[in-house]
Amino acid sequence: MESDDLPLDDLFVVLLHKKIMHKTGSTRRQARKYYTDQYLRTGVIPKPLRLAENGILEGRKCSGRTRVIPEKVADRFADMVKASSDPDNDQFVFLPKDGRTIKNYHAWLEEEFKRPLSLPALRRLVQVDGCRFRYFKIRCGDQWEKPQVIEFFDTGSRYMLTLDACFSESSADAVMVFSKFLLSTPFPLKTICLRPDNAKGFLNLKRAIKALNLKHSTPDGFFMQPDFTRVNAPKDKVHLESSHRSLHHFEMRIIKFFEDRIVKTEPGYIFKKSRREKIAITLLDIDLEGLRNSGLIEAYRKEHNENKHAFSVNGRRVAWVPAEKLKEGLPEGRCFSIQPEEVKDFCKYGYDKAKATVSKKGTITIHRSEHTWPGSNRISSAA
C-alpha cells in the first residue's frame, strides 16, 4: 500500500518511525513526544516528518536553515587534521596524536576565518581522539627542558587567579608566583583557605603565609589559613587537576604559535592508566622569557575566566562564567588589596633552609661538605 493510501493517523505513525528509528534513549523519547504533541494540537503531520518520507532526515535541512559550519570551513578543517597528522605535510604544523583535539582546531579555525564558529557543530564533522597530556621543550641554557606552570585557582568560582611559567616547583618559583597572586587579587575580610600542593617548594610558603597574617590578619577579618594537601592525594585538589587537563590541550596551540621556531621532534613517553604510551615531543627554540612575553599564558587564563564552562557541583552539572561568579562572591566594600612594598621582602622565603654547623676553628659544614669562613679568627674570638 502506498503512503498516500494510508489513513492520516497511520501515515503519521509510519513517518514518525522513519524519523526516530536511529535515535535511542531519552533523545528518542523526546522526539516522539515533540512530534506527537504537534500532530495532536494541529491535526497536520509536521513538515520534518514529511521530509523524512523523502529520505531527508537532517534537522537543518528540514527547517530550511543553512549549515552552521560553511563548506569552506569544513573542508579546511579536514585538511588541517590530515596535515597535522603528517610530519612531511607543510600545509599545517605537525602535532602528536594527543594534541589533535577538536577544541584546538576550533581555536585555529576561528583565528584563520576571523569569525566565531560553533564548537558542537564542529564536533559533528570529524571526531578526533586525543590524550590529556601534551609536552614540548624549550631552551634552558644549553639544554632542553619542559616548562611548568604554577597556578592559583579559586575553588568556589573556578576562577584562575594567577598562572605563570617556570622550570621547576622550587621555593623561589613558588614564592615568586605567590607574590604575583597577592598583588593581583582582592581579598575579602574573612578567612581564606589556601590549599597548596605538598611539594617541597610549596611547603616553604608556610613562612610567607605566616608573615602575611602577622601583617594583615584581624579578629573576625582577613586570615589566610594554610591547608596543604596530603602526600600523593590528587583528590584533595580535584578541581585544579581538572583545570590542568585543559591546560595540556592548550600546549598544542603554543606549538602552533611558535611553529617557525620548531627545531625538531623527539620521541617521549607518557603513562595513561599505568600503561606507557609513546608520544612526540616538540623542541621550540625559545626560552622561558620568550614564552612569558608571548602573552599566550595570560591569554589562556583570560579565555578560561571570561567564557562559560560546565562544572560539577554536588553531583550536578552547572554552567557559569568564572569571572562573573568570582565577582558575585566578593562582598562589596569589604575587600582590600596588598601593596607591592608589603611583599618585596617575601623573596627571602624563596631560599631553602639548610642546617649548618660551625666549628670553633670557623669551619662551616653544610650538606656534608666543609667550607672555611674568611673571618674565622674573629668569629672564634667573639665566641
How does the SSE layout of this entry go?
Blueprint: H1 8-20, H2 25-42, H3 47-52, H4 59-63, H5 71-84, H6 102-113, H7 119-123, E1 136-140, E2 143-145, E3 148-153, E4 160-166, H8 171-184, E5 187-188, E6 191-194, H9 200-203, H10 205-216, E7 223-226, H11 238-257, E8 262-272, E9 275-284, H12 288-293, H13 296-306, E10 309-313, E11 316-320, H14 322-329, E12 335-336, E13 356-358, E14 363-366, E15 369-372, H15 376-382
Helix pairs in contact: 6-11
What does this structure look like?
- This protein has a four-stranded mixed beta sheet, with no helix packed on it.
- The chain is of the alpha+beta class.
- Helices cover 40% and strands 20% of the residues.
User: What strand line-up does the widest sheet have?
Assistant: 2-1-9-8
Q: Mean pLDDT, as a whole number?
A: 80
User: So what's the CATH class of the domain at 140-245 and 295-350?
Assistant: Alpha Beta
User: Quick one: overall form?
Assistant: extended
Estimated structural class? alpha+beta
The CATH architecture of the domain at 140-245 and 295-350 is 2-Layer Sandwich
Order of helices and strands: HHHHHHHEEEEHEEHHEHEEHHEEHEEEEH
Largest sheet entry: 4 strands, mixed
Low-confidence stretches: 126-133, 376-383
Report Rg: 29 Å
- Cα distance, first to last residue? 114 Å
Question: Strand share of the residues?
Answer: 15-25%
